[in-house]
Amino acid sequence: QVHLVESGGGSVQAGDSLKLSCQASGRTFSRQSMGWFRQAPGKEREFVGTVSWSGFTYYADSVKGRFTVSRDNYEMTVDLQMSSLKPEDTAVYYCVATSLGGLRLLQSEYDYWGQGTQVTVSS
């Protein structure tokens, strides 16, 4: 089982940058794909970005060019670097992991979820 803990959330103004980090722990952490989802108040959870074990990435159109997902397989961390933040980026951000490989975009494909970290972007 994998335990995920996010950190780095906070309140910023539009145009600012923020970096979220996810620390993974547990006895299972091999070739899992990992990524980030987010959920804003009153909205459904949505895909943000994912990174495979080998470092291949894929992003939602809404964040493409602004967000970067990266991972360190030795430190067992996954980061989300966010730039040019917009008010619509305000949400609880969740670090996720799956036993599946490759690029995974669906919520149902992820087995492990962190508790989430709040990101608030003011206009």
What general outline do the C-alpha atoms trace?
globular
Number of strands: 11
**Distance separating the two termini:** 40 Å
Structural class: mainly beta
Helix content: under 10%
**Uncertain residue ranges:** none
Chain-wise SSE layout:
Elements: E1 2-7, E2 10-13, E3 18-26, E4 33-39, E5 46-51, E6 57-59, E7 67-72, E8 77-82, E9 91-98, E10 112-113, E11 117-122
Parallel strand pairs: 2-11
Antiparallel strand pairs: 1-3, 3-8, 4-5, 4-9, 5-6, 7-8, 9-10, 9-11
Please provide a brief summary of the model:
This protein is mainly beta and 123 residues long. Helices cover 0% and strands 51% of the residues.
What does this structure look like?
This protein is an all-beta fold and 123 residues long. The protein is 0% helix and 51% strand. The protein has strands spanning 2-7, 10-13, 18-26, 33-39, 46-51, 57-59, 67-72, 77-82, 91-98, 112-113, 117-122. Strands 2, 4, 5, 6, 9, 10 and 11 form a seven-stranded mixed beta sheet that branches. Strand 5 and strand 6 form a beta hairpin. The radius of gyration is 13 Å and the shape is globular. The relative contact order is 0.32.
